[in-house]
Write a structure and sequence with these properties.
Structural class: alpha/beta
Radius of gyration: 22 Å
Helix content: 25-40%
Shape: elongated
Strand order of the largest sheet: 3-4-2-1-5-6-7-8
Number of domains: 2
Number of helices: 13
Amino acid sequence: MKNYNSEYKDYSKYIAIMISTDRSIFNEKSAVRARMIEYSKLYKELHIIIFSTKKYELIEISENCNVYSTNSLSRFLYTFNAYKIGKGIMREIDNSDNVLITCQDPFETGFVGKRLIKLNKKAELLLQIHTDLFSPYFIKYSFLNKIRLYISKITLPYANTIRVVSNKIADSLIKNGIDENKIIVKPIDINADLIKNGIPSFNLHEKFSKFNKIILMVSRLEFEKNIEMALKAMKIVLQQFPDSGLIIVGSGGEMYNLKKLAYNLKIEASIVFVGWQTDLIPYYKGCDLFLNTSFYEGYGMTLKEAQIAECKIVSTDVGIAREIGAKIVDWDEGDIARGVIDVLK
């Protein structure tokens, strides 16, 4: 496995302009605002521009950090309005100052960043990548993602630094012509001690006593998470482990369709949708196997959490699955089922 650089350069003398879509920063009590206040300490100044159709006044969240809303009439005006605000900030910056434009993604926010660096010869562009944009599945079912991939091919060559969350994404960037020296691999921060040392608030097997073997999925219930294939695989698993059960933690737009599929497959008695849970420790520590069938992931935070909880893991080849030693299966219900059965034996 290639060893990539994992540390940013020192930006303490830089004025940073961040382009983001995370509107929770306008919530005074949000974890995002608290994190950005700490983040601002890394810079001389930090200006955060947020894509938003909701109107917010300019706010100062720390002595050197201001937050601006694009206050756009439509989401189609996000990039135009963000550039306008960024241009105004750039005009106020002294020519002797170092400038960093940091963007949440290489797509819409990255496009704004690419335009802004042209306003100052000393400006540097830092792009964040949290998804596996070069996975064929990223564009296969989404026209919007096809556009985003096209935009990334415009923005990435202009980046001085590209932060990714997994070696898999870093490898894919190099295969697509990105200079390895520009890449920094920094995984998503996870409170490992909380998971490792946490005491389960209930016994999962006692709560779901009808199941002898418990397979766990923790996921947003959206198309790209490919839970439909997990259900089809589960029908095969039940032929060998009829007293096993699949517990799905999460919510999302595919909930109704997935419940309907479980019914049509006649496995609804073995599938439990528990909705989103704030306490995942009893699920991770009580299951016999953690299953992930996503089409693509940038990192795979639940994979890492499952590893910390010492779960046996079966996963498609996404995010950090290989890095954490998961049993890798193909995007095929038969292969997924075989992987689950092999681990449960």
